[in-house]
Amino acid sequence: MLADRKLKAFIPTVDAERAKHFYKDIIGLKLLSEQKYFLDFNAHGSLLRIISVETFTPQPFTVLGWVVDDIFATIEELNTRGVFCEKYEFFEQDDLGVWISPAGFKVAWFKDPDGNLLSINEDVSS
Length: 126
Hints:
2,3-Dihydroxybiphenyl 1,2-Dioxygenase, domain 1, VOC family protein, Glyas_Fos-R_dOase_dom, 8 strands, alpha/beta
């Protein structure tokens, strides 16, 4: 029923201007629309809607992620833009914050300005 439909993802923000700067200028997504209560971005054909909220508590798990060709190059680029990966006690990660799963996937996590946990993943099958 929905398998042939485009995905629309939602992320909350308490500061739309700060979120717009992060997703547009830091992450590099194309801003499609700016409305009073939301921002729409093109995320490689999917719609990412950043919704303005008065208050919220970020979730402790990944809410949005991207598959990348080279996780190390992506992290280095993020670092030059002031974004650094999270490091966790319960994962064995390298100095850049990359964890290699038992299946060989490389994953790293970073946060947006509101504390939403985002990820990048280099898939061994790609």
